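2 proteins. here.
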Amino acid sequence: MARNAALVAVLAVCLGAPASAQALQRLHVRSMVAGVDPQRVRLGDMVRLRVRIHVDEHVARLDNVILPDLSGFDVLGDERRCVAVRRGTDCTETLSLAPSAAGVHTIGPVSLDAVDARNGRPTRFGSNAVSVTVTAATLSGPARTLGGIASALRPWAIAGLIVSACLALVLGFRRRKPIRAQPIVPPVVVAERPARDEDARWRTVIEHLRARPSRARVDAVRAILRERVGARPDETFADLAARGAQLEEPSAMEALRLIERAAFVDEAHLAGAVYDAFPALESIAGMKRVSG
């Protein structure tokens, strides 16, 4: 727990502890929503705490983000991302947490210190609180059954089972008949199926997204775009643009920018963000990578 507390303190400093008014960013904060996925886990599993913040200004990052008390969790990782959108910036903070104790854990609001651009006053903005239910890890059904049988057996019964098994093996060896050599049958070689056409794969995910926009389907389209552009797991869209990553189609990077936005907006704006991305998405065909 001491190690966890120390890590949370370090993250709080890195993300920005409360600062003086002169050091605060001047922002129009429009929304700040926290959520956990999943909301019910077992000890040994991992849960992600994700906070989505939208501001009217175009910023590369948000300073002075303050984490809540994370007692009952070990912090395994932290990912920050800010994506420029048509009306400001969508920023997402994602913490990977491992519960260290069973029970119902309430995680308090994540806070942001900034100067409220509407009145010029230093203000502490906060998200909603969330709850995570953690259950103790239990043995599976077969494991419980075997454990009960083993605890019920007496030592003499175990010895009797061992003797019986040995006798059965001896008699089996004596009565075994010679085994005729079987002809060797050459293995059947099955030709591998050709890889699925990339155009067909792309059309499929686009049609699925058109039929029913959802966070999972947006993530599927985003994964294909990032794969084709050669993005590393730790690279943001800004990193890709800085190093000149691109695809053969001129609109590919614009499509990636728009789908990045759709991946991190709140649920109320998801359908609109997907609609904005469709013109660029539909112009992409072969998805061939161009070095950059």
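next one coming up
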Amino acid sequence: MLRSFLVTAAVVIVAQPLFAQDKLDLKKIEEAQTKAINFLKTTQAEDGSWTSPTQPGVSGLVVYSLLTSGVPVDDPTVAKGLKHLESFIQKDGGIYDPNTSHKNYETSIIVTALTEANKDGRYAETIAKAVDFLKGIQWDGPEGAAEVDPAFGGQGYGRSKRPDLSNTAFFLEALTAAGVSKNDPAFKNALVFVSRCQNLKGSNDTVFGDKINDGGFYYTPAGGGASMAGPATPEGGLRSYGSMTYAGLKSMVYAGLTKDDPRVKAASEWIAKFYTLEENPGMGQQGLYYYLLTAARTFKALGTDEFVDAKGGKHPWRAEISNKLIGLQKPNGSWINPADRWMEGNPEIVTAYALSTLKACEGGKK
């Protein structure tokens, strides 16, 4: 298990698109995508859903992955999936199952899918209303969270749950996909919450801020705080781990922070020290595919094609991550995680994650 560390190594992030692009095997990526698309087409239910007719977040992940992998909007599988997602549009603008406690999660994911399907403007109004809905349930004054509250600016599964970094990252992914300005108060308030999820003295003003001070991120400072990487340290610190550190760094970039910001530097140094594709640092195999997707999106958001770790090792991440995934693909085109936590024992969810990751790895391919 990952313990607390003080990162002293530096990270160098450089843009060398030709170097990383030369390392990619785009033919193998395309072959893996085709196999995965065919798998997902065979597992769609008659009603257009995947996994469950009452879990539109899962279907949203799949539809998004198919669209970004080049499956057209009018493809029968995608068209049926979009129709299913449309059935969850609510009067308040959210897109969720009415009996769910995952309103932010479901709406955020579906917004990203509808944005990909919106080339002709068919979903413009729906997306705008959904974005307003998401802003409305962000934790602030109406949710009883003043700015001094550790919950301020975050997103949870819905109003009944405490906010957390994972849900906040999905929220910011949706706002970014929808073209919301980084100057929007929703981004600025979310950045307050995200900063409070980082183990960094000086920028995290919660009781956890200076306990570990390694630059990594944990799940939430709200509701007494929590890290999925294990119990609090004897000093009361919340342990950093891989998927949340990438999610936190990506969220900061989406919110407008640059690589010169101390928070970005500290997170990058943590990643440099614990860079690996063999596990989700601090969590072992748990959440591995979510981790790989979040890592790829983070490096892409940073605008880098080569990452240098704390020992000076150079990593053309697009090639490394895509090759890792291709090696894990099952003969039927799916992926699955034997460590079944956070639904990664579900091949439809994990295959959607993997497809989206491969797309992020394509680089300059059109």
